[in-house]
Amino acid sequence: MTAWEDFGSAGGLYRRLRDGCARDWVAYTWHPFVQGLSDGTLPLAAFRRYLIQDYLFLIHFARAKALAVFKAESIEAMRDKTAAISAILSETLMHLRYCAEWGIPEAEVRATPESAETVSYTRYVIDRGLAGDILDLEVALAPCTVGYGEVALRILADPKRRREGNPYQSWIDTYADPGYQAMARAAAARIDALGESFGGHARFPMLSATFSEAARLEARFWQQGLDGL
């Protein structure tokens, strides 16, 4: 088993969801955009476009976490999700500073409209949360949270990875960081736990459709950077 295959527990809902959309999952986690990050060949224009849209995505990610507070199954889960909102809002400020390091001023980031890919992905996640329960929402969110952890591990294991002078090393380091990896593993474990308490196995076909669509939308989110060239 590779390092990125042990998110979640054997027989748990997370691994079933991931394995159930194996082709779409690989198309997302090892997209040509990701490969370009790994070997350092990704065009700067593609990365800049991604960075701006990722900031806009984070705003709606915080809104989805706010919905998770409302949908949460316990007071403890409400506290956890409230802390996550605060962390994401702080991340938006760090993201603006990171954009500035890449020559993108805050005014440009804020003035850029959401792309169709950003709209379709973020609204899909929120729609699943509004229409369903906390498990529906968490399953829609998992490809982002857990997927980026897997992306980082795939890059670290890539024999073609550019280890010296890679312009995207700081991005790789963010998601390879033990803190982020722990968060990704906790998110997968939460899917497993909610799967047990919210009848996830009986609901698998619908949850699998949600997870698969979120993975496809993630791949399109990468692709928009390349399409903008």
From TrEMBL:
Signal peptide (UniProt feature, chain positions): none
Residue ranges of domain Thiaminase-2/PQQC in the record: 25-227
InterPro entries the UniProt entry points to: Haem_Oase-like_multi-hlx, Thiaminase-2/PQQC, Thiamine_Salvage_TenA
Lineage: Bacteria, Pseudomonadati, Pseudomonadota, Alphaproteobacteria, Acetobacterales
Organism of origin: Siccirubricoccus soli
Name this polypeptide is given: TenA family protein
